[in-house]
Design brief:
heterodimer, A: flat, B: mainly alpha, two-stranded antiparallel ribbon, two-stranded antiparallel sheet
Amino acid sequence: MPESYTELYFPILLQAGVAVVLAAALVLLSYLIGKRVRNEVKDLPYECGITPTGSARERFSVRFYLVGMLFILFDIEAIFLYPWAVIYRELKLFAFVEMLIFIVLILAGYFYIWKKGALDWSQKPANER
Amino acid sequence: MEFIIITLIKLGVVMAVFMTTLAYLQWVERKVIAHIQLRMGPSRVGPHGLLQPLADVLKLITKEGVVPPHVNKLYYLLAPFVAVTFALLAISVIPFGDEVEIAGYRTWLQLTDINVGVLFILAASSMGVYGIALAGWASNNKYSLLGGLRSSAQMISYELPFTLAVASPLLLVNTLSLREIVRAQEGFLFGFLPNWTIFQGPFPQIIAFVVFLIAVFAETNRIPFDLPEAETELVAGFHTEYSSMKFAAFFMAEYANMVTAASLVTILFLGGWHPPLPREWGSDFIAPLIFLGGAAICFYHGLNPARRLDRYTLPVAGLVFAGIGGVFAFPAWKDALLPVFWFCAKTGLILFLFIWVRGTLPRFRFDQLMGFAWKFLFPVAMANLLLTSLLVALT
């Protein structure tokens, strides 16, 4: 039975080592073993056999940024729930009321962004309509 | 010293079993999908195509590892590396069974049990999104970019219902250590209903279970949420420009994530290694009976072979089955293996569900997918969490 922190986390370190070696082997193996033949057509980006037009480094929909920002806000809130859940049975109703206030505030923001249309993927944002 | 040796042995066994599972999960998936679609599936390499995973690996290793000149080389190579590393890391805190005694040394059937196991798994699995986002961007290909973007948006959106659905059973078990979570689900309600969190009072976590399962399908990019690699519109999504072992690396990461997710479902909701029936009802005999039944089927078909090779392969398989079933006759072995059997059986069922769903459901549209996560799953998970916490506070 492991007792100290070192003994508890040592297997994770070992596992990380194995994972890194395996992943590196996967990436490098074909480089070492497979043969290499290059030609002009093979070096093109794959677009179903049609000659590619333009670059792939184009601007993309701002919605992806929006989702990223919303995710950070709500995920931090979700992570706060974990320590709360662990000591929940000791605090009972007190913890419930405290968390209820927090969640109601979060939900107010949630319904606001819903009304603003930030969650409607197929529609334009409200200020562009 | 003893501790290090035991740890190394456990690591070796876990990795060997895990890698074999990953390889054969591919075979099982192809076989099951094929039978759902009334095909045979892989059947040429070895009996019933059983050597197909080996053949696939050999083929992929000897393929040319193309690194196209238009990619961002560092990130292009880093992406499969990151995906595989973090996918393999999560397995180190999964408990497969109860405490056992090997040669006078008591140990857990788990690499290690840290007191923040749930957070560790969440962290490791959400690092996987970096692999996919990097692959999509570094490939410098339009399909890859779209696939990578879609995938990261999808994975972070489903991360929310996922974390909320994990939090609700935590209210019942009040710990983050995966071993303690399983311990808290021991016993039976009313003498027959297992005390798993999907049945446990004061509020059974069935809603959280369903939300978690749906979120896990999306997190692992499986049908019906496989938008990142929707082949009819995006060729292969984020791994369009990857070939040979780098391509295999993404597949391995996906399957590793599937296995981790299935075991997490088992641990959080289905009682981990605890049997679904009380011992008095004969749950100890189910495992050996299943294996002996498998052996009987193999012997019967070996004696009445449908194909010429079956005359030799099926009796061998039958002997293997009978041998595994026979192991349960030794009391010392039985106590160590039964929990592992139940854990593997439940995880296997969830994995089968993954494959079954893939063979049955069509794909979502992207706006439906995002709307479903934000407008349906998130409020449902939140309501379930509040209801659970209220009922736990009142009892």
